[in-house]
Amino acid sequence: MKINTSKILKNGRSLLLAYDQGLEHGPKDLNLLTSDPKYIFDIALEGMYNGVIVQAGIAEKYYHGYYKDVPLVIKLNGKTSFMDVAPISRQNCSVDRAIKLGASAVGYTIYTGSPHEAEMFVEFSNIVEKAHDYGIPVIAWMYPRGPKIANDLDTDVLAYSARVGLELGADFLKMKYNNNPEGFKWAVRCAGRAKVLVAGGAEMEEHAFLRMADEIMKTGAAGIAVGRNVWQHDKPYSITTAIRKLIHEGMSIDDALKLYEAEAHKEASKKPN
Ligand code: FBP
User: Confidence band (pLDDT; 50, 70, 90) for 207?
Assistant: First the structure.
């Protein structure tokens, strides 16, 4: 069966908008605007994202009508931040249900290094088998975490996790960036034909975020799966335009920074005082 990656990947690159933080981190990440999933789906649609990542419950209640133009990625597991020891994240949605909801891809977090990693390996492998029967791609959030993981951003730890994702059958790996371009290139290399998408992380100053995105794309990563750095930003559309040009049109970082400033000026003038 051929895996159809064409919905979430354009010319080998992808920009996804992640919105599963309500489950992973809780309402501390949200405010009056961002607690409304419509706000995020509007950004995904107008910002021409290659996909929006949500849990099934959000998809069921908000992904309909015109949002169907944004490819849907359903996250099939998740855990709250109340649970911090020996991390495990269990499946809460089937591949069948994700497909009924309109998913073009499914996602699953694996905590490599957790005492429970074997359980997640089994669940993940079953998901890969089922999703690939339907021809839809699987994104593995490869997050090393557990008693033996002293530093989850260590190059060897990241590279090992990337390799695990490839070996277990992931089509895409969502990974954290370690601000070490040479080291990260090795992790991308170890991911082989599994395409690496980098998580955005906690909100940072926009120029720093765009510079990081530019650096990431030079490591051979296929794209970014960003959340808070876009939808917590007060100019989400401007940052989206700049990052999209960086990723999909190979815009230089200097031009992307200038573009951001110009767009931010326009976006500010549209906002009611
Ligand atoms: P951000 O870009 O907002 O960091 O989102 C990326 C992400 O992978 C989310 O999909 C997920 O909710 C979150 O990070 C989990 O991060 P952590 O387990 O480190 O809290």
Answer: very high
Give me the amino acid identity at 238.
Answer: S
Closest CA to 141 of 118, 122, 158: 158
CA distance 50 to 36: 20
Please provide residue 172's backbone torsions phi and psi, each rounded to the nearest 5 degrees.
Answer: -135, 150
- What predicted TM-score, i.e. pTM, was given to this entire model? 0.96
Which tens digit of pLDDT belongs to each residue from 52-61? 999 999 999 9
Average pLDDT, rounded, for the chain: 96
Ligand 1 centroid vs 206 CA: distance in angstroms? Answer: 18
CA of 40 to the centre of ligand 1 (A): 15
18 C-beta closer than 6 A to ligand 1: yes
Q: How many residues make up the chain in this entry?
A: 273
List residues with catalytic annotation.
143, 174
